[in-house]
Amino acid sequence: MTSRPTNVGILAMELYFPRRCISEADLEVYDGVSMGKYTIGLGQEYMAFPDDREDINSFALNAVSGLLDKYAIDPQSIGRIDVGTETLVDKSKSVKTTLMRLFAEAGNHDIEGIDSKNACYGSTAALFNAINWIESSSWDGRNAIVVSGDIAVYAEGPARPAGGAGACAVLIGPNAPMVFEPIHGTYMADTYDFYKPELPSEYPKVDGPASVVTYMLALDESYKAYKAKASKAAVKAAAAGDAPVPFSLDDVDYALFHSPYGKQVLKAHARVLYNDVLANPSSQLAGSLPAPERDVFLSASQEASLVDKNLERTFISLGKASFASKVEPAMACSRRLGNMYTASLYGCLASLLSTVPSAKLIGKRVSMYAFGGGCAASFWTMKINGDTSEIAGKMDLLNRLGKMKVVPCQEFVDALKLREKNHNVANFTPEGSIDNIWPGAYYLASVDEKYRRTYEKVPAGSD
């Protein structure tokens, strides 16, 4: 019998992203829109993109092979792989099965887990599945890998600047430097804010205003659920007669949010502060509100508060210092890569580890908010108990982001046209240039007449 695991969390981490990106400022000029529409209105700086030479399978292969190679992970030590993605290339065959080619040579075919799908939330469902397996009686003593990744592309129109691309692979196991705490606050509902009903197309259906409101409503409800569970746990743990203080953002050192674009994260942080004021009207934060507005905000219905721009602006202003210290250190991937869908939140975590020195992170607590349209959301926390310098060093994230090629917007438009042209096509060879793939990376080489996909690797020494 294997002893029960403790301190289950992240042991290692790797990110993969395309070699090219465009400047959102350049895209404003290219699209002929007002200056600041994307850079200020969306809070975005750059956006990564691939052409038809890359798909979700190649993204996942690169993230997982990078994880295995950089950390010298024995393929036999992996007992579970869970994948979260909404970038489907097959309605039956999972991305996880493609990843099994990385374990075949070692003879490891005994790996549990499969894909999870619901917009940007699939990765968090995959993460919870992996953690639950390790903490269950089914655990066989081996570690798990959780993969998240997507290619976020939109049809021409207002949503297109909110795209992006990337993938993340994390090694999950016991005695980790980053430990997930057991309380989750979750909110699930049947909505049509974001969905993909047209299977022949990569492009989603997006109701922009509804998407923003759904994101915030789900944040309200998952955060409330988390706070209620945390309070119940605190009461049980408290000494007789002690009254536990309700959980608030003050209880975490860093706050990470699913990041479809930077402005949404700014609003999400402000919304959490508003929820803290509602939960504790006598708090210092509540006392800093002007009296007339304070009364209006506290008495507003949830429906009214979700569309109250004055409320939003007020809490964004009140939260400037908090945002700068708790949220901004986690935004490097979002600023450079754009929306990675399922990988977005975990790109924020990778950014935090890469931006803040390990010595400063040890002992810190981090909140996580995952959201996927349709909709599914969870709020939970993790504790950084150990040294994260090896993870930051092996990811080399900021240096790699800086090496991306910032290309003219016409290349982005042409790449999306290639993807449109060759999406769901059989018996073809992708037309994109191999020069746009990182050296040593997997790429889609061909799709045969039976839709079977073949992948090859760019020579490691190429440039």
From TrEMBL:
Protein's GO biological process: acetyl-CoA metabolic process; ergosterol biosynthetic process; farnesyl diphosphate biosynthetic process, mevalonate pathway
Reactions catalysed: acetoacetyl-CoA + acetyl-CoA + H2O = (3S)-3-hydroxy-3-methylglutaryl-CoA + CoA + H(+)
Positions with a binding annotation for CoA: S211, K263, K267
Boundaries of every Hydroxymethylglutaryl-coenzyme A synthase C-terminal domain copy: 179-457
Domain Hydroxymethylglutaryl-coenzyme A synthase N-terminal: 4-177
InterPro entries to which the protein is assigned, alphabetical: HMG_CoA_synt_C_dom, HMG_CoA_synth_N, HMG_CoA_synthase_euk, Thiolase-like
Keyword Transferase tagged: yes
Keywords: Transferase
Enzyme Commission number: 2.3.3.10
Family recorded in the similarity comment: Belongs to the thiolase-like superfamily. HMG-CoA synthase family.
Name the record gives this protein: Hydroxymethylglutaryl-CoA synthase
Species name: Favolaschia claudopus
